[in-house]
From TrEMBL:
Domain MOSC span(s) in chain numbering: 1-20
UniProt GO MF annotations: catalytic activity; molybdenum ion binding; pyridoxal phosphate binding
Membrane-spanning intervals of the chain: none
Classification via InterPro entries: MoCF_Sase_C
Organism domain of life: Bacteria
Protein name: MOSC domain-containing protein
Amino acid sequence: MTARVLQSGIIRLDDTLQVEPLEITDPWPPARQHT
């Protein structure tokens, strides 16, 4: 879903701000928990 969200965010600058935080917050927590 990262690729789809990124593409949508790039196309919509207004949504990018709301999509960026969600995208970065999703992959970060799980990655840190595994470490």
